[in-house]
Amino acid sequence: MNIVIVGENLKYSVALMNFFHSKNDNIKVVNILKNVNELENVMSNFLIDIVIIQVPKNSLNILMLNNIIKKYLNSIIFIIRKNEICEKRCNYILNTRKFNDILKLINNTYILHLHEKKAELSADDKKIITDKVKKELQYLGLKESYKGVQYLIEAILILYNFDDYYNFVLEKSVYVIIANKYHKTMDNIKSNIEYTISNLYVECEEDKLLEYLKEYSLYRHSAKKVIVAILDRIKDK
């Protein structure tokens, strides 16, 4: 995992680097920079996974207008000051000496990005799979007008490349990616999908849904069961 640390406080950056290297042999701090203007050159010459930016007081809004920052936003973790406001779609943590908390955020961000890369599909594949999913939803009688339908389709597209899709925790590894894409919160994505699924349980004939989900009763609405069942069907065809 290649990391760049950007910040005016050089002692803090060096302490952070030393901590990372002492805790994880797979982390390499490629460079320590004093300002964001140097970042583009480093990103052009090295394969960088994560950028950590210590944000000077009241400068976050200016940074967010920077074209370099926009380009690599999903790979950046901001260390912000108390009372500094950060956009929900950004990865950020309050300025802290608890380096373990920063390391946890780095690991989670890195794992999420690896997941996103594996989940990528070509435009043609996306269209083919989306059409298949829509046919399944039509078969189940679900209205496409629900807002959560698009998010439901996105979840299936993300999981399609994984053989062990039934093992995923949706909130941690799927809803977060959708939330980043649509600039929403994870809770917003989850609630929209769950609302859509609850309507599916109402609109679909009970016998048909029981057969589809391979269940004996519909005692509990489950987004994951529906997603896994659809993936099972479209992968078999």
Q: What is the CATH superfamily classification of the largest domain?
A: Response regulator
What number is the mean pLDDT? 86
Rough outline = elongated
Order of helices and strands: EHEHEHHEEHHHHHHH
Uncertain runs: none
Structural class: alpha/beta
What's the number of domains?
2
**CATH architecture heading of the largest domain:** 3-Layer(aba) Sandwich
Helix content: 55-70%
Number of strands: 5
Task: Looking at this protein, list some descriptive labels.
elongated, 237 residues, Arc Repressor Mutant, subunit A, 5-stranded parallel beta sheet, Rossmann fold, 2 domains, 57% helix, alpha/beta
Topology summary:
Blueprint: E1 2-6, H1 10-23, E2 28-33, H2 39-45, E3 50-54, H3 60-64, H4 67-71, E4 76-80, E5 91-94, H5 99-119, H6 123-139, H7 147-159, H8 170-182, H9 186-203, H10 206-213, H11 223-236
Helix pairs in contact: 6-11, 7-8, 7-9, 7-11, 8-9
